[in-house]
Write a structure and sequence with these properties.
The complex is a heterodimer of chains A (160) and B (784). Chain A is α+β, with helices and mostly antiparallel strands and 160 residues long. Chain A folds into two domains: 75 residues, Beta-grasp domain (Ubiquitin-like (UB roll), Roll); 74 residues, Orthogonal Bundle (DNA polymerase, domain 1), CATH 1.10.150. Chain A has five helices and five strands. Chain A has a five-stranded mixed β-sheet, sandwiched between helices. Chain B has 784 residues and is of the alpha+beta class. In chain B, the strands form nine sheets. A seven-stranded mixed β-sheet of chain B has the order 3-7-1-14-11-12-13, with helices on both faces. In chain B, a hairpin with a 5-residue loop joins strand 23 and strand 24. Classes of the chains: A alpha+beta (160), B alpha+beta (784). Chains A and B meet through helix 2, helix 3, helix 4 and helix 5 of A and helix 1 and helix 16 of B.
Chain lengths: 160, 784
């Protein structure tokens, strides 16, 4: 089966079997290994990507479902010069990263929330990342990173 | 101490950038030309004699390049530390459902599955031991290799037996006016690192050796096992640790088996071989935190003064020894809690069963006993109608005290301070009085009840008197004026690479950006023993400090020569070296001059903790050179209609000494507490006749962001003289008191005491577990 979709702003074409998951297409066909597999059953969120702006588990998404759609992975989050965006920078600065295996999914979960809700409460942030398991951090600094980014984006908007 | 430039300052983790960008490579992310994939055929029964394993049919399948059993290894691949009772693949017997039997390497997934199916395995099932409390019965089947009457340990199903003895606990207890006697049990706990186990082996030219990329706890133990079981020399085996997606103690033995399997397959095929475990295979095959049963008897005066403590404990080590001799020793040493007694007796038996197997997990034996003793203290406080914090303050260890082990403590025992701070921070007095009063009134259906609970912890630093304890770091100044720092201790997300970098930078007065710390690599760094048991910061940090001091003294010589003054006349400003005439020279100038003088700008630092000793016969000694102290208070909201427990607040005060890397330290604390919260409320590894019941995150629940409250952590930073820049250990003890604090809070809310983990809905609501025995006997291996 031939697939064509917009991946991180670029049109890509690839071959995949009917039962291939988006996760396997991203990792095995396209070599984008920033998206991780943690459980294979849609429980841990390590494989999170944005599909048309919505947060999805790529291990539960069939490759066929993204044909003609827009997919953003962690590789598409950074600024054009390759440096981290403001949310990624906040993850670094508040210590939201430990082993880093859940980090790509967490960053995408954060972005998906902020796109929908520019001023989330801490409870709303916790709810938004509840599908992304982290075993290292206890989540607190991840919540901090998302909250700080929301505040900074608001300030930027007000300044402009 | 002079003002610190880098230590304790807000500095970012050295590997955070590549992790947020998604470019950090974990073992599963490696793809090499011609790489094969491998998988292990695992036992579907918990105990059996292996009658026959024939891999030759698998080799006839197109796309299968190699298939191996234990016979492909030297001495059947026997390994294990401290007791070598495991094999790279099972030899003669399988001892748990999930034990590896054979392994194949294939071109692709389709061939791999056909290959595993084609292997002929004939097993003769044997009776098993599934209840640790019956493992030592005279008629129990023997799980291990040694007979019941062997002279030493292991002996039959007895892996180890440890004692602690202070005076005569039984006679002391007989005269105590108040006695508290209860049983407590903990279940196994799954590490649940989000990255499953995996390894990649790359053969050297002419199959002369092998390089293994393995996210394991201890690359040097791994290399040693590979050398022995593959029959290769030190120069022909290299182990590199890529980024590790979490470990928490869990990436030892199974990782060594996987490493051995892919290494052998790579040597046989001449091609790179990678194996990545599915979540189900990871949970089935990997070791867990041991399950424990503890019988505790506390004796006290009516005013609450503790007099005696007796603990009898049984540790379920499962099918293999793994690191149980260390963890159950730590359990024994910490079983009485951080309190003063007139007499104390601890007896701990670790036994073999067919319930998977147990090994290292954060806390290393202490969370189990802390859960028991801290609930017992709470029960005693209730019985005596004394405030639980008051009871602890009355009895806790203080500066200069002698412990139940006969160890005279130094002046770093900050437990009183921790208890007093946590009391204030959590608004304990008001809440405890209020909730205690409310819980005596009958609950209306569905009423929400609040409760608050406390627990205290002490936690010995490093391995203790059981193991050889040392660490080695090296530093080298490179031609481009960067520095390369190596440590034999590993960083699996804990932040130790950042902490070591900061220690080196601080010691040398150089910007941390100059210091590069490569991933651990047995060709580059020096053996430092395993990275377990709260060893990282103290041992690796001190070794790094020594290495930096040594290279620093060479630089000072060069600077003095360049500036025409004495070494002791040089002052530093940032990276500049300044003479008494206020003439500055740069670090680069000094390094160039050192080269002209022929000085070698390489150093090696080795550090061992102060001397410790322990007598297995008398149960007395100095088990650890010092301890971490801490307290936590948890507040819960319990739904009296459903038994649902929400943890609404946690306050943690820990005596950490100097904090080296603050964002990392808080991360360790929050993460540890969250693992303790999971242990308390939801994590259950049930073995039903040897078959593990939960095999993925849909059944084995770990805390999500919604299960954890915002945690308030405070570090009591009294400088600890033996630690690098005054630091103590931190990674493990944050996890330890969380579960008993939560359980004590539940009792405070409901009046019901739960003495078995986890405190799930039915235990909170009904006081008993509704899980039916034998409800799910089918092994969900599905790996064949």
């Amino acid at each position: 089966m031939k697939l064509q979709f917009n991946l991180n702003g670029k049109l890509v074409e690839t071959e995949a079997s009917a039962d291939a998951t988006l996760l396997s297409v991203l990792r095995d066909n396209l070599g984008l290994t920033g998206t991780k597999e943690g459980c294979g059953v849609g429980e841990c969120g390590a494989c999170s990507v944005l599909l048309d702006g919505r947060l999805v588990n790529s291990c539960l998404t069939l490759a066929a479902q993204v044909n003609g759609h827009k997919v953003i992975t962690i590789e598409g989050m950074c600024l054009p010069d390759g440096s981290p965006n403001d949310l990624q920078q906040a993850f670094i600065e508040v210590g939201a990263v430990q082993c880093g295996f859940c980090t790509p999914g967490m960053v995408l979960a954060g972005e998906a929330l902020l796109a929908e809700n520019a001023r989330p409460s801490r409870l709303e942030i916790r709810t938004a990342i509840a599908g992304n398991l982290c075993r290292c951090t206890g989540y607190q600094q991840i919540v901090d990173a998302i909250q700080i980014t929301a505040q900074k984006r608001q300030e930027k908007k007000t300044d402009a | 101490m002079p003002e610190l430039q880098f230590i304790g300052k807000p500095i970012n983790r050295v590997d955070a950038l590549e992790k947020v960008l998604g470019t950090a490579k974990y073992v599963g992310d490696y793809v090499l030309p011609g790489m094969l994939i491998a998988r292990t055929l695992r036992s579907t029964v918990p105990h059996a004699r292996i009658v026959r394993v024939d891999v030759s049919p698998a080799l006839k399948i197109p796309g299968i390049l190699a298939a191996i059993t234990c016979e492909d290894f030297v001495d059947q691949g026997r390994f294990g530390y401290p007791i070598a009772d495991m094999f790279m693949l099972a030899y003669q017997r399988v001892r748990y459902a999930g034990d590896g039997i054979a392994c194949v390497a294939a071109e692709n997934e389709t061939a791999l599955k056909l290959g595993l199916d084609a292997i002929v395995v004939e097993l003769e099932e044997l009776p098993g031991v599934f209840d640790a409390m019956t493992a030592l019965d005279p008629q129990a089947p023997i799980i291990g290799e040694t007979p019941r009457d062997a002279p030493d340990f292991p002996r039959g199903n007895l892996v180890t037996h440890y004692i602690v003895r202070q005076g005569d606990a039984q006679s002391e207890l007989a005269t105590c006016p108040v006695i508290l006697e209860e049983d407590y049990t903990t279940l196994h706990q799954e590490h649940a690192y989000i990255e499953t186990e995996g390894a990649l082996a790359i053969p050297a030219p002419e199959m002369s050796g092998v390089t293994v990329y393995a996210p394991c706890q201890s690359p040097f133990l791994n290399r040693g096992n590979l050398m022995r079981t593959l029959g290769l020399g030190e120069d022909n085996v290299r182990v590199i640790q890529p980024h590790v997606g979490g470990a928490f103690g869990g990436k030892d033995d199974l990782m060594y088996q996987i490493s051995g399997q892919v290494a052998k397959l790579a040597l046989l095929t001449g091609r790179p071989v990678k194996m990545i475990l599915s979540r189900e295979e990871s949970i089935i095959a990997s070791y867990k935190r041991d399950a424990m049963h503890m019988h505790i008897k506390l004796g006290a005066e009516t005013d609450g003064k503790l007099r005696a403590c007796a603990v009898n404990a049984t540790v379920d080590s499962g099918a293999y020894t793994s690191i149980t001799p260390f963890t159950s020793w730590r359990s024994s040493i910490h079983a009485m809690g951080p309190y003063r007694y007139d007499a104390c007796a601890v007896d701990t038996d670790a036994v073999y069963t067919n319930n998977g197997y147990a090994g290292a997990f954060r806390g290393f034996g202490n969370p189990e006993v802390c859960f028991a003793i801290e609930q017992a203290m709470d029960e005693l406080a209730l019985k005596l109608k004394i405030d639980p914090i008051e009871l602890r303050l009355k009895n806790c260890l203080r500066d200069g005290d002698t412990t139940a082990h006969g160890q005279k403590l130094g002046d770093d025992v900050a437990l009183v301070e921790c208890l007093e701070q946590v009391r204030k921070l959590s608004d304990w007095k008001r809440k405890h009085t209020l909730y205690s009063r409310l819980s005596t009134e009958p609950a209306k259906p569905g009423e929400l009840r609040r409760g608050i609970g406390v627990a205290a912890v002490f936690h010995g630093m490093s391995l203790g008197a059981e193991g050889a304890d040392f660490a080695v770091s090296t530093l080298e100044i490179n031609p481009d004026f960067t520095l390369t720092l190596t440590s034999g201790l590993t960083d699996y997300g804990t932040g130790s690479r950042t902490a070591f970098t900061l220690i080196a930078a601080e010691t040398l007065g150089l910007n941390p950006d100059r210091i590069v710390m490569p991933r651990p690599d047995t060709d580059q760094s020096h053996d430092s023993g395993p990275t377990v048991a709260s060893r990282g910061t103290i041992l690796g940090g001190n070794a790094t400090r020594i290495a930096a001091e040594r290279i620093g003294s060479q630089l000072n010589q060069a600077a003095a020569d360049l500036l025409g003054c004495r070494v002791d006349q040089i002052t530093r400003h940032g990276e500049l070296f300044i003479s008494p005439r206020e003439e500055p020279v740069t670090f680069e100038n000094v390094v160039e001059h050192a080269h002209k003088m022929g000085l070698t700008l390489y150093s090696r630092g080795r550090w061992s903790p102060p001397e410790i000793h322990w007598s297995m016969e008398t149960g007395q000694g100095k088990p650890y050179f010092a301890y971490h102290y801490g307290t936590q208070v948890a507040e819960v909201l319990v739904d009296s209609g459903t038994g649902k427990v929400e943890v609404t607040g946690i306050w943690a005060v820990h005596n950490t000494g100097t904090i080296i890397f603050p964002q990392g330290a808080y991360g360790q604390l929050y993460g540890g507490i969250t693992q303790g919260l999971g242990y308390a409320l939801m994590e259950r590894v049930d073995y039903d006749k040897g078959y593990i019941q939960a095999t993925n995150f849909d059944e084995y629940l770990i805390p999500t962001a919604l299960d954890v409250p915002d945690i308030e952590g405070v570090f009591v930073q009294d400088s600890f003289p033996a630690g690098p820049y005054g630091a103590k250990n931190l990674g493990e003890p944050g996890m330890v008191p969380a579960a008993p604090a939560i359980l004590n809070a539940i009792t405070n809310a409901t009046g019901r005491r739960i003495r078995s983990l986890p405190a799930n809905l039915e235990r909170v609501l009904l006081g008993k577990d509704l899980l039916k025995e034998g409800s799910s006997t089918a092994c969900k291996l599905g790996l064949k």
